[in-house]
Amino acid sequence: MSVIGRRVLLKAVAGGIVLGGTQLARAAAVSPGNGNIRYLGRWQPQADGSVVGYYQSGLEFDFIGSSVSVTLGGTCRLLYRVDGGPVQRNITANGTVVMASGLSDGRHSIQVYSEYQQSFPRVVSFDVECLKPPVRRPTMEFIGDSISVGYIGPGLVNSLGSSFSYKTPELLGLSHNTVAFGGIATAAGSGSPDKTGMVSRYTKLSEYVPNETNVPDWDTSRYVPDYIVINLGTNDPSTGTAAPNFKPAYRTFLDNLRGYYPEVTIFAMSPFNTAHRDEIAEVVSATGDLFIDTTGWIDAQTETTDGTHPTIAAHDKIAGKLAAAIQQLR
Fold this sequence. Notes:
30% strand, five-stranded parallel β-sheet, 18 strands, ten-stranded antiparallel β-sheet, single chain, alpha+beta
């Protein structure tokens, strides 16, 4: 007897919708603690049973049914994609958000992401007929600044979905998450508004928020990626008294990552503006990780909005080049 989409009734039942002896299955609330949901990145369970996401973290699952919704505990920015289709974004998501409806019978897949920095989605439940585990793919974590977040420019589509950090692993067929914040540097004391540097911030649960105090630590054993891609250095000064801080901080960061994730493969990109390229190459040579030189990938005059931030088309170009480089190196 098929249980996909419909159940043949042998006798009258209570609940559901009965049509000619057939009960149409009804979507039900599913807890975010359901073991079939795969969380990607930093998610923190709450006392009320909800979970809160940090940075540009994601989740994925498969489901059977014609629709899927999420109930949120507050307003946030969401990115989602059903069955590998177009990326959808909702920058004022709140309450119950219908992410797909009118789907065909059978099994479907969905990805859900925190769409931008400081979004902090609080997931209360999913409304779906039958939730299933997703196909497990290797995981790739991106670590970076505003370019990795998906900042394009004022009034433009500033979104994780615009960024190479989302598009590259999709080209590679990998699951993924991003740990990035606009203006952050590698070394402490540089960058703005967060001056802690990624070398220190990485072990904190949350990205920067104004007037923050006592930011909880992040237990790196809770999520262990298979691959890490680093794109840092744009916000670290190349001249002046702070410039010498970059190289030792970058080395410390790579050593720390290797300590957290002994089996991970690390790809270290040079910034698109070539800042600290030679220093990164030297550090990566010493640590035995993999260096990706992005020199010449984009033209700062024609393929950025301000000399620093790539256009959406440039992010597409970067994603293609980066995917090819990773395939060659791994």
